[in-house]
Amino acid sequence: MGENEAADLVDGAFDWLGNPVRCADCPYEETRAAGLCDLGKTCVMDRRARRIDRFFALNPAQAERHLAHPYFEVRTLAARYASPFRLLALVDDPEPDVRAMVALRLPLARIGALAHDPEPRVRIALAQRLSGEALAALFDDSDYSVRLAAARRAEPALLLRLVHDSDPSVRREAARRAPPYALAGMVADPDPLVRIEIAERLPDEALALMMKDEDFRVRFVCAERLPIARLGALADDADEVVRDLARQRMNPGET
After folding, report:
1. Residue 51 belongs to what domain range?
2. Cβ(132)–Cβ(117) below 8 Å
3. pTM of the entire structure?
């Protein structure tokens, strides 16, 4: 390698095949001359996603030229910047990351088929776009992470459909945001973390249903929230922390 070629190399700048990246091999001479790329920092030939992304951010008009690039990171990031109307051909891309980006950017009328994509991360991306009944359709997804993503965006009234979901993290999200009238039906949930969420939100008149919960953390929330006149039983709770809180609230002048 000659002296000039060696000077053209940057440590850590390799393409997706593991070959060193050199400006001398780059087809974007005009781009480089305009200061719109920088070897080792902003380069579409580099294998590092951050460097590729910087290139397309500065040169979005180049994105559509790279939608069929052999390296999936280039296709993914090109899809971020290309016109959404050019992305339909990538719906069946072999890489989930590419399809997830397509799910985030295709016009809504064109993303329905992705609801049946085999990769959960693609369906999660889809959940970021949908609303109403189209979003609620993902409540029946086989993967809990997809159902959770849908639950986080759904309107509270729709979360009634998830109060008996098989996964506790999904039920916790339902407990956080479902309408208050739905919470009483969840007080016997098998997961204590779900019941804690319920106890945090139940109206006072229904919260008394949880005073004898088997988990002291749920009873502690009851001791925090119940009207003082209804704390009597918790003053003799089996757990010292719950007892102390109940007694402090009942007799605030005592130490």
Report:
1. 1-82
2. no
3. 0.86
